[in-house]
Structure formats: C-alpha cells, structure tokens
Amino acid sequence: MSFGKRVSGGNAPAPARPAAPAAPKPKVKAAAPAATPRPAQKAAAGAPAPAAPAKAKPPAAPPAPVAEEIVIKEKSEQYYATKTTVFNALIDTIDLGQLAQLDQESAREEIRDIVVEIITIKNVVMSISEQEGLLDDICNDVLGYGPLEPLLARDDIADIMVNGADTTYIEVNGKIQRTNVRFRDNAQLMNICQRIVSQVGRRVDEASPICDARLLDGSRVNVIAPPLAIDGPTLTIRKFKKDKLRLEDLVNFGSISVPGSEILRIIGHSRCNVLISGGTGSGKTTLLNCLTGFIEPDERVITCEDSAELQLQQPHVVRLETRPPNIEGSGEITMRELVKNCLRMRPERIIVGEVRGPEAFDLLQAMNTGHDGSMGTLHANSPREALSRVESMITMGGFSLPARTIREMIVGSIDVVIQATRLRDGSRRIINITEVMGLEGDTIVLQDVLTYEIDGEDADGKLIGQHRGTGIGRPRFWERARYYNLEHDLAAALDSLEEAA
Ligand SMILES: Nc1ncnc2c1ncn2[C@@H]1O[C@H](COP(=O)(O)OP(=O)(O)OP(=O)(O)O)[C@@H](O)[C@H]1O
Ligand SMILES: [Mg+2]
After folding, report:
1. pLDDT reported for residue 201
2. Under a CB-based contact definition with an 8 Å cutoff, are residues 140 and 159 in contact?
C-alpha cells in the first residue's frame, strides 16, 4: 500500500473554527401555495398559527443534559384571538406581491408599521413586549417557517421532529423532548413543508409524498406527507450547526480523551484510510469533519455528500452533491456516479459523507489505489458490523465477487474504523478506535486500540466511564506514523492511554 507522497511535519495546527454561515433567513416567497383558499395574491401568508411561540433562551452548551420541559412560553387564548384579528387585518391591507420584492429587513419594517397601525385603530391593549412578540409571530407566519422559526433560531437544538400539526419534538443535549409548538392544522404544516422544499426546486404533495431538501442555512430536511404518513405531514430537520464542533470540543465533552484525540490526530495526519461507523445522529459527520481538520492545506480533496454538511477549511476542496430524481423520476445522480467521477478528478483524498450502497466498492478501490487518507461514514453498531455492511453493500451492488475477494479488498484498503455512539444518557462518545489487521482464513481480524468502558452511573443518571487503551504497543499504522515522523507522538499517546487505563 502506498504511503502517499509527502512527509508531513505532523504537527500542523488544527484549522481555525469554521466561519459561521448566516442564520436561516428565508426569502419572502409570495408564491407559496396556501392551504386555505384566499384571494390570489394573498396565498403566501397562509394563516395565523395558534401556537406561534416566543423566543426561548438557549440553555447552556452541551453536553449537560438539562431537562428543559417548557421550551416555549404558553400564551393565552386571548393572545391568539388578538393575533388572528391583527393577522387578518394585515392580510387585507398588505400587498403580498410587493412585499415579496423586499428584503427580509424591509419586509419586516413594512409589516411592523402596519401592525402598529392596526393595533392603534382596533384599540388593542398590549404591552410593548407583547406587541414585539406578536410582531415576531406574524412575521414568522408571513415571511418564514411559522411556528418553526423560534426552534430554527436556537443553535442548541440538533434535530426538530414535527409529527403532524400538534406534535413537535426537539433534540437538545442528546435528549429528545416534546415542545408545545403547534401548527394551526395539517394544512398550515404542509404549506410550510412546501415552502421549504420549493426553495430547492422540489415539490411535496400526495403524488410525491417523500422529499429531501435543505434549508437555506444548510440544515438537512426530510418531509413525508400523507397518505404515507398516517397522522399528518412529518418533517424532520437536522439543524446545521453554525459553529461545527472541533476535536477540542469533543475532548471537553468527554466524547474522547486527550490521548485518544492525539491518536485521532495521528491517524488523520498519517493518511490512514478511515471508516467512521455509528448509529443515526451519533456524531459521525461531526467526527468526519473534525478528522478533515488534519488534511494538509496543499492536498486536493474531493467530498461527495447527499446533502453538503462538511465544512473543510483547506483551500483546495471540490464539493460534490448527489441529485435526487425529479418529479418524473429522471435525472438522478447517485453517490456511486459521484465517487466514480471523483477518480477522474485527480483527487488526493476522497471524503464520502455517507456510504450506503455500491459506492462502497469505488471508495475501497480509491483507498487501494493511492488515495490514502480517504474517509467515509456509515451506519453500523460496531466496527465489525461496519465491515460486514461494506461487504453486503458490495454484494448487493451486483458485483459478482467471491466473499473472500471482497474481504481482501476491505483489509487492503481500510486501516481504521472509528465507532461513534449516542449513549442512553444522551452523551455522544467515541467508543472504539479499531484497526483492521488482516485476514485469518475467511475472517477479518480487528484489533481495538482504544475502547470506552462504562463504569457506572451517577445520581443524575449520567454515565461514568473512561477511554482505555488495550495494551497495544505497536498498532499496525505505526509504520505509517513513522513515515510521517509521528511515531514518537504515537508512542507517547499510547503510553498515556495505558496510564489512563
Ligand atoms: N461529541 C458530541 N457531543 C455533543 N454533540 C455532538 C457530538 N457529536 C455530534 N454532536 C451533535 O449531534 C448532532 C448530530 O451529529 P451528526 O450530524 O454528526 O450525526 P450523524 O451521526 O452524522 O447523524 P446522521 O446519521 O443523521 O447523519 C449534531 O447536532 C452535532 O452537533
Ligand atoms: Mg451524518
């Protein structure tokens, strides 16, 4: 196996924190279809949401799993009645066509002026803060994603899960909790789903009830609508973190120990081929993003993703994204096509956001043919399961190769499997750094370099555990580390692992 072309100094600093992209600022969309028939130009407004909530304060940074039951302040029925009155008067007054020409700030100003006027004319008694809250709610309904807006504005939320108009859950600090966010009805929710997916030129309705999309801020969205979703439109949003977690953050959260993070740094710098394995939402993409921090600035990196989530800091990066089929079912570009095309683009490293199909074969081939330091993530519950999933992806991809040949390929290309997990207390941890050693008969031999062991549970239900070394003096990637002048660092990291054990 080739060890790459350059000898790295090995101590390149981690890249600076990624620049924060702009907060989700949905553009005014006058043409979004309305659920309830209203005069033509008024379609964009939808209708007032009865439970549009006020802004909630984000709680402390993760991983402290603070149960925060009341996410959004309850409002009185009278508030909703007032809102409906003001909203309807606004819709009668405002020209939505013109509003759509304005930028977000000016549109807001315009709405503010009219709302204040309506409140005065209708003699509504409200405090300044109530008035501000009302204005926020109304702007969210007219310009944005309605009741979702306060949730989208919170950076501490990882996922938003809307199960029909009345039920919305969020994930904060690894814990899923119910909120009191409500939509007026399923029609309003569907309307908002449609508004979201139409921004990326897609459509969701009874005829095409499943849709993947992205918010303007990069958040990943999935919509499944009735009749497939029995209890109403179901919307799942993986919030895009403006400030991606860095390896230091993972160390601070206890997701990995200091010597463990040093081993990850050496794995990244010495261009090991890495698979990151884990369950849904276990932190695979975050970890992959951290590992890409160790890529040298002069390397040509190509990333392939279903929905661009990675934020590489290097200057020479080409980002590719798959394309779902259009309404007629044509035009799809699969991950396999992207990975295959990558190979014609003179990549030095290939990064695959998520390997889930026959592209596994092309990734292994790339890893095997001089693109050392390639990486990908996949869904599996252990390093061994990750490798057998790769094998079955290749088998199911229609490659008629004997199992042994596939295993030889796996052993010849993947150096390390890193296993991420979300534990039952909500914390996310790296629980294995495992080497692929070779084939013994027909069995792939694996060797853990580091494992996480749970020792118990504290009074608050938080799991107590430790990252421990397994006594390996010379992992298989030792030679690789030596090639990159990192063997002393590796020896020191392995020693500290043992001391911690
Ligand atoms: N070690 C960690 N500690 C705390 N939060 C984390 C950690 N790793 C990831 N997260 C957060 O968890 C959420 C899910 O992370 P991520 O997208 O990396 O998971 P994933 O395994 O790639 O999910 P999926 O299977 O849906 O692709 C994100 O909001 C991320 O910021
Ligand atoms: Mg992911």
Report:
1. 77
2. no
Residues 6+ positions from 56 with CB-CB distance below 8 Å: 71, 72, 73, 150, 154
Report which protein residue has its CA nearest ligand 1's atom 12.
283
Instruction: Provide the residue count of the chain.
Output: 501
Give me the half-sphere count of Cα atoms (radius 13 Å) on the Cβ side of residue 244.
26
Q: How far is the first Cα of the chain from the last one, in angstroms, to the nearest whole number?
A: 33
285 lines ligand 1 (CB under 6 A): yes
- Nearest residue to 477 via CA among 214, 211, 253, 274: 274
| Overall average pLDDT of the 359-376 stretch | 92
pLDDT band of residue 69 (cuts 50, 70, 90) is very low
At 210, give phi and psi (nearest 5°): -115, 135
Residue nearest to atom 6 of ligand 1 (CA): 283
164 C-beta closer than 6 A to ligand 1 = no
Answer whether 465 contacts ligand 1 (Cβ < 6 A): no
Phi, psi of 191 (to 5 degrees): -60, -45
Would you list the DSSP string of 120-159? Answer: HHTT----HHHHHHHHHHHHHHHHS-GGGHHHHH-TTEEE
- Kindly identify the ligand whose nearest atom is closest to the C-alpha of 379: 1
pTM: 0.77
CA pair distance 96, 43, nearest whole angstrom:
8
CA dist 336 and 356 (Å) reads 10
Q: How far is the CA of 65 from the centre of ligand 1 (A)?
A: 15
Mean pLDDT of the chain: 82
447-496: per-residue pLDDT in tens?
999 999 999 988 888 899 999 999 888 999 999 999 999 999 999 999 99
Measured by CA distance, the residue closest to atom 28 of ligand 1 is 158
Does residue 241's CB lie within 6 angstroms of at least one atom of ligand 1?
Answer: yes
| Residue 37 in tokens | 């028939």
Closest ligand to 240 CA?
A: 1
> Each residue of 304-336: pLDDT tens digit?
999 889 999 899 999 999 988 876 778 899 999
Q: Positive or negative, the Cα torsion across 353, 359, 364, 365?
A: negative
Query: Is residue 282 within 6 Å of ligand 1 at its C-beta?
Result: yes
Do 367 and 374 touch, CB atoms closer than 8 A? Answer: yes
Helix (H) and strand (E) counts for the chain? 15, 15
Distances (CA, A) of 418 to 254, 259, 477, 483: 16, 15, 14, 22
**Look-up: residue for tokens 């802004």?**
55
Cβ of residue 278 lying under 6 Å from some atom of ligand 1? yes
Which ligand has the nearest atom to the CA of 62? 1
Provide φ and ψ at 198, rounded to 5°.
-70, -20
Least confident of 201-210, 414-423, 439-448, 469-478: 201-210
Q: pLDDT value at position 35?
A: 33
Q: Is 283 in the pocket of ligand 1 (CB under 6 A)?
A: yes
